[in-house]
């Protein structure tokens, strides 16, 4: 018997998914201490996978581990937002320019469909659904760059702090309409096969997120 398309997740991965979601969504607040003993009892796991999970969360900038003091949820600084936005904007703009050469009509149709789904999510007031469709939208563009180094780098970059930034952004009143307006322009540029405009719009899209978070949410 052959098994295909079965995903096996380690206990560490499951704990990571649980804790990272709580941190990203602000259910565990910046500055709050993560107590190993308490978490171990609460989620019924030993301390070994919990400690491994902490190392991953620290590598992504979500927590800070202080020797002999413990692990604390990291706050987002202005510099964090500026630094990650600059790097992501530059690299994703490059990925989008490369994608113009490779993206198929079917993939452009999927992008259009996701734009429609995001509009519907806005109407229903479903920010989390919007976030999920937005992630798929950007993933298609990055994948179409056909550059594995860029894809892996952006996959890493779009975790941790960036997820906290986008969560803040998508749960603010004006963000969803602004964001999806950008998406529509990006799709139109792909249809025209215009790499210069695609790259510029991606950079502006990410810069807009940065400015909104800095102006309205990190005050």
Summarize the structure in words.
The protein is built from 10 helices and 3 strands. The protein is mainly α and 219 residues long. A hairpin with a 3-residue loop joins strand 2 and strand 3 (70-73). Mean pLDDT is 90; it is low at 1-7.
Broad CATH class of the largest domain: Mainly Alpha
Task: Provide the CATH topology of the largest domain.
Answer: Four Helix Bundle (Hemerythrin (Met), subunit A)
CATH superfamily of the largest domain: GntR ligand-binding domain-like
Mean pLDDT: 90
Q: How much helix, percentage-wise, in residues?
A: over 70%
Taken from the alpha-carbon principal axes, the silhouette is elongated
- Structural class comes to mainly alpha
Helix and strand pattern: HEHHEEHHHHHHH
Given the structure, what is the number of helices? Answer: 10
CATH architecture descriptor text of the largest domain: Up-down Bundle
Task: Output the radius of gyration.
Answer: 19 Å
Largest sheet: 3 strands, antiparallel
**How many strand elements?**
3
Whole-number tally of structural domains: 2
Low-confidence stretches: 1-7
Can you list the strand order of the major beta sheet?
1-3-2
Distance from first to last alpha carbon: 58 Å
Amount of beta strand: under 5%
């Amino acid at each position: 018997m052959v098994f295909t398309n079965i995903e096996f997740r380690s206990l560490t991965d499951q704990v990571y998914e649980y804790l990272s979601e709580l941190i990203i969504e602000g259910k565990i607040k910046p500055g709050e201490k993560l107590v190993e003993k308490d978490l171990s009892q609460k989620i019924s796991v030993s301390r070994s996978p919990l400690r491994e999970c902490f190392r991953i969360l620290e590598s992504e900038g979500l927590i800070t581990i202080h020797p002999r003091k413990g692990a604390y949820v990291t706050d987002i600084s202005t510099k964090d937002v500026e630094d990650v936005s600059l790097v992501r904007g530059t690299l994703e703009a490059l990925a989008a320019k490369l994608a113009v050469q490779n993206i198929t009509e079917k993939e452009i149709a999927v992008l259009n469909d996701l734009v429609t789904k995001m509009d519907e999510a806005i109407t229903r007031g479903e920010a989390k659904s919007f976030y999920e469709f937005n992630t798929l939208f950007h993933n298609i563009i990055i994948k179409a760059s056909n550059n594995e180094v860029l894809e892996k780098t952006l996959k890493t970059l779009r975790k941790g702090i960036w997820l906290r930034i986008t969560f803040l952004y998508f749960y603010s009143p004006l963000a969803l309409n602004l964001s999806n307006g950008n998406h529509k322009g990006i799709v139109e540029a792909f249809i025209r096969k215009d790499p210069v405009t695609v790259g510029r719009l991606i950079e502006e899209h990410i810069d807009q997120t940065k400015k909104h978070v800095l102006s309205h949410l990190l005050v």
